[in-house]
């Protein structure tokens, strides 16, 4: 099997794979003609939010720009700017209520942009942002739920409802992206990566949803397993993406409460990673080798964590020592 050199997927929703490609394609024109007035305005407003942390001022300026460019070709760029500012605010503000509100606004706004520009690059970019926003918001809500279940039980129902909204929106966005990219993925490697990445992300979102909402946990975990199993079969279990998918698949066992079972399955993932790393018949790029070794470390850390949660401290300590010894013995010289 041909191994893919997998770049690290960006966490921040404002750094989009599709916008990177678009920027690369348009760079010569931008250099030759200079930035448009709308682009300069948008860059300034993003700086207000991201660099100076003036989120409220950036939102006010975005509203002004939306009116200014309402009937121009730049209207879609300003719509995406509005979405970016909401997400920047959700990521950097300290107030939990404000962050939740901005995440919800971002999910709604991305859906509106998609509907307005369906079939266009802007619509696809909005879907990319919606999927990433759902993931980020989901992680935030999972942390909030952990605290609320211990300290503020009255907040749990509202947080679970918001989790339902976020994860459903994210799964739908991934489905939309996979559909949009399906015709291109056979001939375009970048489209194939984006398609497969969103397939993987769909399964992860379903698993996160299962963790967030105990009432539907078994059903949601089973849905995640189905998605991830189909994904692994498609990309191959010995590819970097496939091994990542295998780890995500086995995390469903942890989500439903079988901690010892999860620890055993995580061991299977490490074994598969090391088999792949040491297969001399595979021409694995150095960058991909490092990705696989980083994944092995992530899996070992999860193994130690679930063993500790299961009350098996001695086994956890042994696993930590095993990892330190094993990973050093297996680490290829060209990535040291």
Mean pLDDT across residues:
86
User: Number of DSSP helices?
Assistant: 13
Report how far the terminal alpha carbons are from each other: 25 Å
Q: What is the string of SSEs from the N terminus onward?
A: HHHHHHHHHHHHH
Number of strands: 0
What's the alpha carbon Rg, rounded to whole Å? 22 Å
Largest sheet: none
Secondary-structure map:
Elements: H1 17-33, H2 37-50, H3 55-68, H4 75-92, H5 96-116, H6 121-151, H7 156-181, H8 189-212, H9 217-235, H10 240-255, H11 259-277, H12 286-309, H13 313-330
Helix pairs in contact: 2-3, 2-4, 3-4, 4-5, 4-6, 5-6, 6-7, 6-8, 7-8, 8-9, 8-10, 9-10, 10-11, 10-12, 11-12, 12-13
Name the descriptors:
336 residues; mainly alpha; 13 helices; 0% strand; disordered N terminus
Task: Describe the protein in words.
The protein has 336 residues and is mainly alpha-helical. 78% of the residues lie in helices and 0% in strands. It has 13 helices and no strands. α4 packs antiparallel against α5, α5 runs antiparallel to α6 and α6 packs antiparallel against α7. The two termini are 25 Å apart. The N terminus is likely disordered.
């Amino acid at each position: 099997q041909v191994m893919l050199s997998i770049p690290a997927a960006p966490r921040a929703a404002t750094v989009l794979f599709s916008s990177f490609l678009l920027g690369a394609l348009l760079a010569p024109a931008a250099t030759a003609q200079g930035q448009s007035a709308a682009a300069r305005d948008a860059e300034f407003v993003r700086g207000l939010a991201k660099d100076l942390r003036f989120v409220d001022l950036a939102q006010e300026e975005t509203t002004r720009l939306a009116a200014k460019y309402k009937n121009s070709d730049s209207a879609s760029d300003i719509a995406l700017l509005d979405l970016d500012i909401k997400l920047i605010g959700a990521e950097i503000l300290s107030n939990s209520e404000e962050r939740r509100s901005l995440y919800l606004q971002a999910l709604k706004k991305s859906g509106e942009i998609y509907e307005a520009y369906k079939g266009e690059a802007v619509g696809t970019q909005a879907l990319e942002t919606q999927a990433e926003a759902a993931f980020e918001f989901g992680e935030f809500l999972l942390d909030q739920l952990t605290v609320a279940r211990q300290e503020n039980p009255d907040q749990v129902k509202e947080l679970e409802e918001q989790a339902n909204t976020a994860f459903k929106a994210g799964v739908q966005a991934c489905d939309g992206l996979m559909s949009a990219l399906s015709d291109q993925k056979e001939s375009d490697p970048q489209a194939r990566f984006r398609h497969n990445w969103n397939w993987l992300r769909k399964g992860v979102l379903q698993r996160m949803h299962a963790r967030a909402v105990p009432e539907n946990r078994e059903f949601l975990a089973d849905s995640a397993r189905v998605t991830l199993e189909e994904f692994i079969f498609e990309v191959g279990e010995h590819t970097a993406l496939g091994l990542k998918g295998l780890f995500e698949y086995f995390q469903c066992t942890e989500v439903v409460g079988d901690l010892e079972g999860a620890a055993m399955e995580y061991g299977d993932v490490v074994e598969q990673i090391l088999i792949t790393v040491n297969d001399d018949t595979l021409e694995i790029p150095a960058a991909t080798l490092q990705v696989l070794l980083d994944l092995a470390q992530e899996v070992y850390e999860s193994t130690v964590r679930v063993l500790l949660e299961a009350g098996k401290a001695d086994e956890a300590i042994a696993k930590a020592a095993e990892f330190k010894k094993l990973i050093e013995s297996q680490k290829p010289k060209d990535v040291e």
